[in-house]
Design a protein that fits this description.
By secondary structure, the chain is mostly helical. Among the domains are: 14-41; 44-84; 177-218. Helix content is 76%, strand content 0%. The chain has helices spanning 9-84, 89-92, 103-142, 158-167, 177-199, 205-218, 223-228. This is Coiled-coil domain-containing protein. Residues 12-91, 102-126 have a biased composition (Basic and acidic residues). Residues 1-132 are annotated as: Disordered.
Length: 229
C-alpha cells in the first residue's frame, strides 16, 4: 500500500495568492474594457453635453445663493426699519381728567401771587435802602480829618497810645498806664458800640471799631485827654 503524502502549506498558500492575483487582474481588465466601451459609446458630443449640464448646475446654484442673500438682506432691512419706528404715543396715551378750577380758587391764586410780588418788592426796597445807607456811612468813615490837634496823641490802637505816652513830655509817673488805658477804652467801647450799631446799621466790624477809636481820641473819658487838660 503506497505511503500517503502530507499537504504542503506553503505551496498551497502560494497557489492561493497566485489565483487571487490572477482573479484581480482579470476583474481590472474587465472594468477597463467596460469603461472604454462607454467612453467610445458616448462620443465627443456627449462629453460636451455633460459639460454644459455641469455649467448649468453651477449657474443655478449661483442664482439660488444670490436669491438667498437678497432675501436675508431684505429681512434684515425690515427688522431695522421696525426697530427705528417711533412708538405711537396716541395708542399708549391715557386720558387724565383735568380738574375744574372754580372762580374763588382763581381769585385766591391771584391774591397770593400779588402778595408774593409785593413782598419781593418790599424786600428789594429795603435792600436798596440798606445799600445806600452803607455807602453813605462808608463815605463818612473814610473822610480824613484835616483839622489835627497837636495836643492829642495820634494812635491807631491802645498799644500805640501807651507807647506814645512813654515818650510824651510833662506826663506824671504812672506805674500801670497800660492797664488804666485799656480798661477805660474797653468800657468806652462797650457803651458806644451798641449805640453806633443802632444809629448806623449795616457797617462792618472794622468800620465800627474805627469810629469808636475816633470818638475815643476826643472823649473826656480818655485818660490821655485828662492829662492834657
Amino acid at each position: 500500500m503506497p505511503k500517503k503524502m502530507g499537504v504542503n502549506s506553503k505551496a498551497e498558500a502560494a497557489r492561493a495568492r497566485k489565483s487571487a492575483t490572477e482573479a484581480e487582474r482579470k476583474e481590472r481588465d474587465a472594468r477597463e474594457k467596460e469603461e472604454q466601451f462607454w467612453r467610445e459609446a458616448e462620443g465627443p458630443k456627449s462629453r460636451a453635453a455633460k459639460k454644459r449640464e455641469e455649467e448649468s448646475e453651477k449657474r443655478a446654484e449661483a442664482v439660488a445663493r444670490r436669491a438667498e442673500a437678497r432675501r436675508l438682506a431684505e429681512q434684515e432691512e425690515k427688522e431695522i426699519d421696525k426697530s427705528m419706528k417711533k412708538p405711537d404715543k396716541k395708542a399708549n396715551r391715557v386720558s387724565i381728567p383735568v380738574p375744574k378750577v372754580t372762580e374763588a380758587e382763581l381769585r385766591r391764586q391771584r391774591e397770593e401771587e400779588q402778595a408774593e410780588l409785593a413782598k419781593k418788592a418790599d424786600e428789594m426796597k429795603r435792600r436798596q435802602s440798606r445799600t445806600a445807607a452803607v455807602e453813605d456811612y462808608e463815605k463818612m468813615v473814610l473822610v480824613t480829618n484835616t483839622n489835627r490837634d497837636d495836643s492829642i496823641i495820634e494812635a491807631r490802637t491802645v498799644e500805640d497810645a501807651i507807647a506814645q505816652m512813654a515818650v510824651t513830655d510833662n506826663l506824671p509817673v504812672d506805674k500801670h498806664p497800660e492797664r488804666r488805658l485799656k480798661a477805660s477804652f474797653k468800657a468806652f467801647e462797650e457803651v458806644e458800640l451798641p449805640k453806633l450799631k443802632e444809629e448806623k446799621p449795616g457797617l462792618t466790624h472794622n468800620q465800627y471799631k474805627d469810629m469808636i477809636w475816633k470818638l475815643w481820641k476826643k472823649s473826656p473819658d480818655n485818660p490821655l485827654n485828662q492829662i492834657n487838660e
